[in-house]
């Protein structure tokens, strides 16, 4: 992973968790070849450990194959919620939780 390739390391992305793709707004240029071109995805793996899906891949420079950042995305179901997390020097860090029920109990207003 290369902090010279990004504008800000691990930017806070709120609840925006990317399963694939790249956050190019945070890409400065390749610190190795100094080109600002597309970032490719390589070495993508998907693992399933105890009901948690983990997707990892490398962001690499299109021109010189320099590794810009390592991306990790996780998905799991905990109780009645789908939990998502993302951690990547380029794309940032984020967490999200969505109810699997039609009406999210956390969003309902108290009756009294």
From TrEMBL:
Transmembrane segments: none annotated. The lineage of its organism: Eukaryota, Metazoa, Chordata, Craniata, Vertebrata. Keywords: Activator, Developmental protein, Metal-binding, Transcription, Transcription regulation, Zinc. This is Protein Churchill. It comes from the Eukaryota. GO terms for molecular function: zinc ion binding. The gene is churc1. InterPro entries: Churchill_sf, Transcrpt_activator_Churchill. Belongs to the Churchill family. GO terms for biological process: fibroblast growth factor receptor signaling pathway; positive regulation of DNA-templated transcription.
């Amino acid at each position: 992973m290369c902090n010279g390739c990004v504008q800000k390391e691990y930017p806070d992305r709120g609840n925006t968790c990317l399963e694939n793709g790249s956050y190019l707004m945070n890409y400065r240029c390749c610190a190795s070849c100094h080109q600002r071109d597309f970032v490719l995805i390589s070495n993508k793996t998907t693992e399933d450990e105890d009901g948690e899906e983990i997707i990892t891949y490398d962001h690499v420079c299109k021109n010189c194959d320099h590794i810009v950042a390592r991306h990790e995305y996780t998905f799991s179901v905990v109780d009645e919620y789908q939990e998502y997390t993302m951690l990547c020097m380029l794309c940032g860090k984020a967490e999200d939780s969505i109810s699997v029920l039609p009406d999210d109990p956390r969003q309902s207003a108290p009756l009294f």
